[in-house]
Structures are given as structure tokens and as C-alpha cells.
TrEMBL record, chain B:
It comes from the Bacteria. The chain crosses the membrane at residues 12-34, 73-92, 104-131, 143-167, 188-212, 244-267. Residues 69-267 form the ABC transmembrane type-1 domain. GO terms for biological process: transmembrane transport. The keyword tRNA-binding does not apply. Keywords: Cell membrane, Membrane, Transmembrane, Transmembrane helix, Transport. Belongs to the binding-protein-dependent transport system permease family. SUPFAM superfamilies: MetI-like (SSF161098). The keyword Transmembrane applies. This is ABC transporter permease. It comes from Sulfobacillus acidophilus.
């Protein structure tokens, strides 16, 4: 299997600088070997992700319902009907879809923004030297380690009218009625927002902490000699050096949040209040509850098209060097 | 260099807030899992009136928790064990050969994050059914279908993390082994993989965690016998009519969280290094 045609360049150990890393020189054109090594991953991803993605796009153009799904290869062609049905804002389905898209966009901006602020605050303050920081660091990443559905279940319990939120905000702090119904109407958005932030911010914290710790300490020392305050230090050093991390972070957490299905589904199942009807759940309900698979696929295609356009614009506008080879 | 008093006050306040925000649900989880069903249904108290271990006994009977635990353990560990060599091979090709690979991997990782699961859930289901009918390989409602699905979901990030780790291992070490007559692949396996073992274990744990917590595909690809924890735990909410056994649900949620939390905490520094490898330059 494995190609024997490896090249036999002399080792760089002989060039007088034994510790020097020269990765490029060590990469070879190995003929079939790299292709063979990549093949299992390519096959798996074609079968499970890329193939179904393409089939999903095709499905958006067919009349696929519970009546035709059994024999899906012979489902009637629908042309653009599913798409026009999904995007027409004068009809209930289109109105619901765009409402759901707008809601998801708002949810994404809030979760990503708050998670970034919390993560940055935690990372900046835990970069200081003081007792107990190791403990706090471990504590902060706990919500990310807990399975997402388990976290949502805890928050679902806490937002019950007899739950911990009403005890804290209502009975103890008297900020609200202690009989507030969180899990219906517009307030339910607050419930999925809090649960979403709780699980997302530790990831932002971890990435930003790693970014800050990559900064040479002399930079801060020099700034302090020049009389910098903590705030100017943050503005002039920490923010600029973590800019690349932040940009990738916002992109990844943004995509995760926009596609979030677990939070509203585990909290509300198939009947979410309108304020928690995130677009993934909306598509799921169209497909697997209303059994209109073609329409669900059409909505998913529109959603992914919009996501891809936004992501590409984001990468282009910020000149994000996704995948630039370091030390290459 | 002394920190000003006001700076320290701000730091304490911010960290206290973040710690309280993190701990509040965890405290609820622990106390309710140790409460009676009556108390779990009554207005929440910071400290339960009675402490009982009963929920941890009863949870095994209210729903077939042991079965779900077994199913999740089989599916998650198989996904991790099978995906690791696949990801390692890919990472080997990308770091040790002159492919314009790293950039491609990172773009593919980002692209897969953009795919909403709901778009390919139905097509995947339909494809699995077709394979089952034509080739006789059972993929719907079986461990196999779930394992194939989850190991693939974890591949992009696994390859991302592994390319980062392996690129950091100096190739001189492999060269040395090859001088002794080992083939390139053998040198890679015997030297580089051995040096990067903790990172590789971390990637395996990452795959395990992905499978352990996945909800959407499990809701369609499992049946009564292969149901995994994320779907199984919802049974506590509907097990006996409209009564929700919150205390047992919290006990079960805590129980199933412990293994992945421990694994994550032990290996956390490798995750941080791996996840940030692509973002930090």
C-alpha cells in the first residue's frame, strides 16, 4: 500500500543548525501516498456530509412530502415552487421563515457579542497573577465541557415558574414578579439567550486567553514604564494582538449559533414559542413534523446561501487569512 | 508594579459575576438532584430542606438509563477509535507532504461549520435507507449508522487540531528513524505519533464528546433499542404522564456529564492548544 518512493534528501541535521525547523524542506511529493492517506477521510466526508448536502440541494426542487418520500427518486419535479413558497413574505409560510431568519440573526448577534465580552473580560483578568486564578479558569470552562443538551435541561428547569430564576430575581432581589412565566411569549427568548451565552462564552474565554498568553510579557512591561494605565494597555496592546483570534472566533461562534438547534429543541421540543423559533428548528418542524421535506430543504438551501455569502464577505472584508501557513 | 485599588475592585466584581453566572446552574443541578420529587416541584430553595440520594437510585427505573448509557458509550467510543486513525492519516498527508493542505483543511472546517445539520439530516437518512436496501448494510436505527455519522462530524476539527500538533513536532526525529531504515510512514508512526500521544488522546476525547452530546441526528437515526442519552433523557419529562421527575432528570444529567467533564478537564490544555492552533499565528 504505502509508496516506497520516499525521497532521500540529506537530513538537515548536517547543516550546522540542528535545532532549526524547516518544515517545508521536509515535505515531499510522495506520489500516491498522500492521496491514499487522505482517502478514508474524503470517503467518509463525501458519504456523510458532502453527498447529503448536494442531495439536500436537489431535494429543494422536488415535491417531497410524506406521500412521495417513500419513493423519493420518482417524486414530481417542483421547479422553484418550494423556494418561492419559502421566500414569499406575503404568505404565512414565507412570513414565518423570514421572521425566523431575523430572530436567528438577532440571537446570533447577541450570543456572539455577549460571549465575546464575557470571554474577553475573563481572559484579561485571569492573565493577572493572583491566588485562585487556576481554580477560576477551570470553573469557567465547565459549561463548555458539559454536554449541550444537559446544560439546556438545567436552564429549562431554572426558568420554570417555580425555578431558580424566579427565586433569585423575584423572591430574593424583588426585581420581577416571582411568578414570571419565562418559557412562553417573548420572555422565552431571554431563556434561550441566557442558556446560549452560558454555553458559548467559555469557548471565547479559552481562545482569547490563549491569544493573550501568546503576547510577550515585555510588551506590557514596556507600556507600564511609559506610564500606561490598565485601560490603555488593553486598548493599545491586548485588543490589537488578539484581533486575529477574535475574528476567527466571531466567525466560528457565529456559525454555531446561527445553526443552533439543540437549545430551542431541548427546551421546547416541536412546539416552540414564536420568540424561540430559530431557523434550524423551524426547518426541522417543516420537514419532520409537517412532513413537507421539499419545503424544508428549500429553506435550508436559502439559509446556507445567506450564511455562505455573509461568511465570505466577512472573510474578504476583514482580510482574514484563513489557513495561512504559519512559519511556512 | 502595584495594581491600583479601583482596578482590583473591578477585577473582583467582574470575576465574581462570571463565577456566579457559571455556578448558579451547577448549584441548581446538584441540589435538585439531591432533593425529593415534592421539593423539586416546589418553589426553588437555595438549600434543600431534605437531602436524599433517592433520585440517583430511582433514575435507573424511571427510564432505561443503563441502556442509553451503554448505547452512548458504544457509539461514542467507537466513533473516537475509528475516526482517530482516519484523521491521523489525513493530518500526516497534510503536514508531511507538499500539499497545499493546511489552508484547504481550515477552509473545509469552516465550511462544514456553516452547514446547518437540518439540511443534510433527511438526505443522509434517505441515503442510509437506500444503502440498507441495495447493499444490505443496516444503517438506520443501528450503532453502525450513528458511528459513521459521528466519526465524520468530528473529522474536520480533528484534522485541524492534529495538523497543528503534528506540524509542531520537528521532522528531524522522523529523519533519524528513516536513517535507520524505517519507511516514511513507519517513522511517522513510531516517532511522531508517540511524541504527540497526549494531543492525539485529546482529539479522541473531543470526538467522544461530540458523539456523547449530539441531539439532532440521534433523534432520527436511533430507535428504541439504540437510543442514546440526549434523546433518552427527555423521557424523564414525559415518563409518567405530565409529571416531570426533575430531581431524577437532574441526577441523570449530572451522571452523564461527569465522564466528559473529567476527560475534558484532564486534557484541557491540549484542547486549548489544538483549537487555537488554526486561529493564532
Amino acid at each position: 500500500m504505502v509508496s516506497k518512493k520516499v525521497n532521500t534528501r540529506p537530513s538537515i541535521a548536517g547543516n550546522g543548525q540542528p535545532g532549526l525547523r524547516l518544515p517545508r524542506r521536509h515535505r515531499t511529493r510522495g506520489g500516491a501516498e498522500p492521496i491514499l492517506a487522505l482517502l478514508p477521510a474524503l470517503i467518509a466526508m463525501t458519504l456523510v456530509q458532502i453527498g447529503p448536502m448536494l442531495v439536500g440541494v436537489v431535494m429543494a426542487f422536488f415535491r417531497l412530502t410524506q406521500f412521495t418520500i417513500g419513493n423519493w427518486l420518482e417524486a414530481p419535479f417542483a421547479g422553484l415552487q418550494n423556494i418561492t413558497l419559502a421566500v414569499n413574505p406575503t404568505e404565512p409560510i414565507g412570513r414565518e421563515f423570514w421572521g425566523s431568519m431575523g430572530l436567528t440573526a438577532l440571537y446570533t448577534v447577541l450570543v456572539v457579542g455577549i460571549a465575546w465580552v464575557f470571554g474577553m473580560a475573563g481572559a484579561v483578568f485571569l492573565s493577572d497573577q493572583f491566588r485562585g486564578r487556576g481554580l477560576l479558569r477551570s470553573l469557567f470552562i465547565l459549561p463548555y465541557a458539559i454536554p449541550a443538551y444537559a446544560g439546556v435541561m438545567i436552564w429549562t428547569f431554572m426558568f420554570q415558574s417555580n425555578g431558580a430564576i424566579n427565586t433569585l430575581l423575584g423572591r430574593d432581589l424583588h426585581l420581577l414578579s416571582s411568578q414570571t412565566f419565562w418559557l412562553s411569549g417573548a420572555k422565552a427568548f431571554g431563556a434561550i439567550l441566557v442558556a446560549g451565552v452560558w454555553q458559548m462564552w467559555p469557548f471565547a474565554f479559552l481562545m482569547l486567553l490563549a491569544g493573550i498568553q501568546g503576547v510577550p510579557g515585555e510588551l506590557y512591561e514596556a507600556a507600564r514604564v511609559d506610564g500606561a494605565t490598565r485601560w490603555t494597555e488593553f486598548r493599545d496592546i491586548t485588543l490589537p494582538v488578539t484581533r486575529d483570534v477574535s475574528r476567527v472566533l466571531v466567525l466560528i461562534t457565529g456559525l454555531w449559533t446561527f445553526n443552533n438547534f439543540t437549545t430551542p429543541y431541548v427546551m421546547f421540543g416541536n412546539a416552540p414559542p414564536a420568540s424561540t423559533n430559530l431557523v434550524s428548528l423551524q426547518i426541522y418542524i417543516n420537514s419532520f413534523v409537517d412532513l413537507n421535506f421539499g419545503l424544508g430543504a428549500a429553506m435550508a438551501v436559502i439559509m446556507i446561501a445567506i450564511l455562505v455569502i455573509i461568511a465570505l464577505l466577512y472573510i474578504r472584508l476583514l482580510r482574514l487569512n484563513v489557513g495561512e501557513v504559519p512559519n511556512g | 508594579m502595584a495594581e491600583s485599588f479601583s482596578y482590583r475592585v473591578v477585577r473582583v466584581l467582574v470575576l465574581l459575576f462570571l463565577a456566579a453566572f457559571t455556578l448558579y446552574p451547577l448549584w441548581t443541578l446538584i441540589t435538585i438532584s439531591l432533593s425529593t420529587a415534592t421539593e423539586a416541584g416546589a418553589p426553588f430553595r437555595w438549600i434543600p430542606e431534605f437531602l436524599t440520594l433517592h433520585p440517583y437510585v430511582a433514575m435507573w427505573h424511571t427510564a432505561p438509563l443503563l441502556l442509553y448509557l451503554k448505547n452512548s458509550a458504544i457509539v461514542s467510543s467507537s466513533s473516537a477509535v475509528v475516526s482517530l486513525p482516519i484523521a491521523l492519516l489525513a493530518a500526516y498527508a497534510l503536514t508531511r507532504h507538499r500539499l497545499r493542505g493546511r489552508g484547504v483543511v481550515l477552509r473545509v472546517v469552516l465550511a462544514t461549520q456553516a452547514f446547518p445539520g437540518v439540511l443534510f439530516l433527511l438526505p443522509l437518512f434517505v441515503i442510509y435507507i437506500s444503502i440498507e436496501h441495495t447493499l444490505g448494510i443496516p444503517l438506520d436505527g443501528t450503532y453502525l449508522g450513528l458511528i459513521v455519522t459521528y466519526l465524520t462530524f468530528a473529522l474536520p476539527f480533528s484534522i485541524w487540531m492534529l495538523t497543528g500538533y503534528l506540524a509542531a513536532v520537528p521532522p528531524d526525529i522522523e529523519e533519524a528513524a528513516r536513517v535507520d531504515g524505517a519507511s516514511r510512514m513507519r517513522a511517522f508512526i513510531s516517532m511522531t505519533i508517540r511524541m504527540a500521544t497526549p494531543s492525539i488522546v485529546a482529539v479522541g476525547v473531543f470526538t467522544f464528546m461530540t458523539a456523547w452530546g449530539e441531539v439532532l441526528f440521534a433523534s432520527v437515526l436511533t430507535d428504541g433499542a439504540t437510543r442514546t442519552l440526549p434523546i433518552g433523557l427527555q423521557l424523564y419529562e414525559s415518563a409518567k404522564g405530565l409529571v416531570i421527575y426533575w430531581n431524577q432528570l437532574m441526577a441523570a444529567a449530572l451522571t452523564v456529564s461527569v465522564p466528559v467533564v473529567v476527560g475534558f478537564m484532564v486534557l484541557q490544555r491540549y484542547f486549548v492548544r489544538g483549537l487555537s492552533a488554526g486561529a493564532i499565528k
